[in-house]
Design a protein that fits this description.
alpha/beta; Aspartate Aminotransferase, domain 1; Aspartate Aminotransferase, domain 2; seven-stranded mixed sheet; four-stranded antiparallel sheet; about 40% helix; globular
């Protein structure tokens, strides 16, 4: 049966082993059927069964959820320069750990460390595969088997059940909690320091905010105490940013440069969030501590490959020219996009949108407020506009949008299906597939 001419196109596309596997399933499904097998019908059955295997499960979508850095949808979009650098690294051998000048073995951190130091003011830098790895590596290298002091108000949990206490335990540290959930004072840290203390850690509560009767200790207050006691201060900025977002009218988020300038010894932050690059965990700070971290055996298990290093280096280079950054970095471009521009886009799309929906649905434009996402500025929302739909069976309609050639992901809120247009970067492609909607 595998030699039937009707199966030849499918074999050419997916290979003979998968077609044979499908044929066995088809034969099992036909067990007991007396009719003579129809090769054309068989080929169609096999093609339908293998359709999911012949296309990538990691599909392009339109993220119209209102969350710019959506963890489930891949977080930051890479700049064209980063994409080109990654493709080049994939296609050819590259100087990942090779020194062209000396003709000898090199160090992969050399591709990104100078840029990170230039952009943050740090003495040294290194990188691993994500920020959770960066925190784990820093604690393991600097405090394994000893105590680390953290404020109770900073013992955060982020998506995927990542908890600071759990990471500390995996790193071999003993957590010493100080203060209360809403108030921690400098004296709390001072009292907790003992002969077995290895470090003091600060964690930026980037995915929540405690308001009201609160008190936290700033780096400017904490660093002198740590210096007096001979202890390093580690700060996890979480999302992290290399620039002051207020430049583009956005709320302020602590920058890596600010943390380094305040005297923090080791600063960790992400590469694929506000920085706008590939997934990575970045560590910058004092040379003596960064070198200890880089020499830790765990670093090899967490290191970046050539593709992400190439994309990260290209992304960091963009920061050398702040004036063009908002145009060249997709994440920053989406965050800084004026609400008036988004409203104009909504007005252009509404007629075709309403036509594709057909009768029985109420389509319109609705002012909304979106999120930066990925643990950045959880309280500060972004004013935007969405294409909105009211009617019955909104879940089924949302499913119909997800079944388009390029799936469209929105959100249902207050009995309204919303498609926030802040992150719609290809208006033509979105509009072109609307006639294929089957609501």
């Amino acid at each position: 049966m595998a030699n039937w001419p009707a199966l030849a196109p499918l074999i050419a596309r997916v290979g003979r082993p998968l077609v044979v596997e499908a044929l066995r399933a088809w034969s099992e499904a036909r067990r007991g059927v007396p009719e003579v097998a129809d090769p054309i019908a068989c080929a169609r059955w096999c093609e339908a069964r293998l359709a999911g295997l012949s296309t990538s499960s990691l599909r392009r979508v339109f993220n119209l959820t209102g969350t710019v850095l959506h963890t489930n949808l891949g977080r930051a979009l890479l700049a064209e320069e980063a994409i080109e650098a990654a493709v080049t690294a994939m296609r050819s051998p590259a100087t990942l750990e090779y020194d062209l000048e000396g003709g000898a073995r090199g160090e992969r951190d050399d591709h990104i460390a100078p840029w990170l130091c230039r952009l943050t003011g740090a003495e040294a830098a290194t990188a691993v595969n994500n920020n959770a790895g960066a925190v784990l590596l820093a604690l393991s290298a600097l405090a394994a088997g000893r105590e680390v002091i953290v404020s109770r108000g900073e013992l955060i949990e982020i998506g995927g059940a990542f908890r600071i206490p759990d990471i500390m335990a995996r790193a071999g540290c003993r957590l010493v909690e100080v203060g209360t959930t809403n108030r921690t004072h400098l004296k709390d840290y001072a009292t907790a320091i003992g002969p077995d203390t290895a470090a003091i850690m600060k964690v930026h509560p980037s995915n929540y905010a405690v308001q009201g009767f609160t008190r936290s200790v700033t780096a400017a207050e904490l660093v002198p105490l740590a210096r007096e006691k001979g202890l390093p201060v580690i700060e996890d900025l979480g999302s992290g940013t290399l620039v002051d977002l207020e430049t583009w009218g956005l709320p302020h988020e602590p920058t890596a440069r600010e943390a380094v300038a305040a005297g923090i010894d080791v600063v960790t932050f992400s590469g694929d969030k506000l920085l706008g690059g590939p997934q990575a965990g970045l560590l910058v700070g004092r040379r003596t501590f960064i070198e200890r971290i880089a020499k830790n055996p765990m670093k090899r298990a967490l290191r970046l490959d050539k593709v992400r290093l190439a994309a990260l280096e290209a992304t960091l280079r963009l920061y050398a020219d702040p004036e063009t950054l908002v145009k060249r970095l997709p994440t920053l471009r989406a965050l800084a996009r004026p609400a008036t521009e988004i409203h104009g886009q909504a007005e252009r799309l509404l007629p075709a949108f309403a036509l594709a929906l057909g009768k029985g649905w109420q389509a319109g434009i609705k002012p909304v407020r979106g999120q930066i996402g990925s643990g950045a500025l959880p309280v500060d929302l972004l004013p935007s506009f969405a294409l909105s739909v009211k009617g019955k069976s909104l879940d089924r309609l949302a499913d119909a949008f997800r079944r388009l050639p390029i799936p469209v992901i929105g959100r249902i809120q207050d009995e309204t299906l919303l498609f926030d247009l802040r992150t719609l970067d290809n208006e033509a492609a979105f509009a072109a597939q609307l006639p294929k909607l089957a609501p």
